[in-house]
Amino acid sequence: MRFRLPLLGLCCLFLFAMSVTAVSAEDQLFELRTYVTNEGKLENLHTRFRDHTVGLFAKHGIKNLIYWVPVDGEGADNTLVYIISHEDKEAAQASWKGFREDAEWQKVAAESEKDGKILSARPDAVYMTATDFSPQNFESTEEPRLFELRKYTTAEGRLPALLQRFRDGELKLFEKQGMTNIAYFVPVDMPNTLIYVVAHKDADAMKKSWDGFRADEEWQQLWEKSTKDGKIVIKVESQVLRPVDYSPTK
Predict the structure, then answer these.
(1) pLDDT tens digit string along 110-137?
(2) Which residues fall within 8 angstroms of residue 62, CB to CB, at 6 or more apart?
(3) Is this structure's pTM higher than 0.85?
(4) Phi/psi at 29 (nearest 5 deg)?
(5) End-to-end distance of the chain based on CA atoms, in angstroms?
(6) CB 41 within 8 A of CB 95
(7) Distance between CA atoms of 59 and 61, rounded to whole angstroms?
(8) CATH 3.30.70.100 corresponds to the domain 134-243
(9) What is 9-129's CATH number, 2.60.40.10, 3.90.25.10, 3.30.70.100, 3.30.300.130?
C-alpha cells in the first residue's frame, strides 16, 4: 500500500509531532477510547486515523499518546483502543467540538464511508485522571513490545486501599519481575476502579513476569498487609494489545 500524506499539510504534521512528546504535569485529563468496526472495516479505520484523524486531533489540541489493537481473542479483527489527553474537562469539550465541526474532518468522514459505515456502534469513552504514582511513561522503545491494559474493580470504598498498595510497592515489584510501568488512572465516572497499563517484551515474558510476581514472597506479604481489613479487588479484567504503526508510543 502506498503511503499518502494527510491533506492537512506541513502545519498539521508539525502539530502532530508536538503532540507526541512526553506528557507533562499540566495534562490532567486522559481519555481511553474503544472503537468497534463493522466486519472487514478495521483497515478502513486505520487508514482514516493514519492519514487524517491523528493530525486533526493535534490540530484541535488533543495529544495522541498510544494506539493499539487486541493481540487475539474477541475484538482482534474489529477493535481499536487508544489513549489521548486533554489539559482539562473544558479543553476536552472544546477540542471535540472543534474536531467534529472541522470541515476537513467532515469531508474525510464522508469519503471514508462511501462504501458503508466503519463503526458498528458509538465509540466507548472513559475519562480518567492520573494517580499520584503514575509514571506517565509514554515513550517508544527500539524493540517491539506488548502492552497490557488492566482494569481492577474494588469492593465498595476499597479503592484507597488498592491505591495505597500500589504506592507501597506494587509498581516496584512489577519492575522487579521485568514489567514496565506505563500509566495508572482512576476513571472520573467509574467509582471503585483503577485502570493501568504495563508493557512486556513479548507473550513469554508476560507470563514469566506474572508467574514470578505471584510467587514473590514480598508481594504475598504486601497483599496480606493490605487485605487485613477485608478483600480489596473483586474483579480483574485484562486486555493484551499491540501498538499500531501510527501509534506515537510503541
Answers:
(1) 999 999 999 999 999 999 999 999 999 9
(2) 19, 84, 85, 86, 95, 99
(3) yes
(4) -130, 130
(5) 21
(6) no
(7) 6
(8) yes
(9) 3.30.70.100
